[in-house]
Amino acid sequence: MIRVRQRAFAPCAVAASVWLGAAILLTHAAQLRAEADGPDFYQVTGVADDDVLNVRAAPSPHAKKLGAIPPGADCVRNLGCRGGLTFEEFTTLSPAEQAARRRANPRWCRIEYRGVTGWVAGRYLAEGGCSE
After folding, report:
1. How do residues 85-130 score in pLDDT, each as one tens digit?
2. Do 17 and 59 share a domain, yes or no?
3. Which domain holds residue 12?
4. N or C: which end of the chain has fewer CB within 10 A?
């Protein structure tokens, strides 16, 4: 009878495999997190009933107006935002300092609404949804 000697996996090889798998998982999770920029859809908020949220060609109140979104509208697709407070500013600045920073660096979001793509002032957007 021939005896075959079985070897157990070396603890170092198992540990290396676990670390490699964890590193791959964390790398992909970080990439997914880095691509995320808020909700998929917004709802317009803080716009008076007799007013509209202007959609602009660039992130500036002086840019060409491309369209308008009525107050309370939903299904405003999020295409990414820029500006606004960083997490550090949000957690360390006083309310007065935050207000000054928001004025100096307003948040603008690129959106798509009913076929119109452009930029809107982020202060008028809240997380929303879309049932269409």
Report:
1. 889 999 999 999 999 998 999 999 999 999 999 999 999 999 999 8
2. no
3. 8-37
4. N
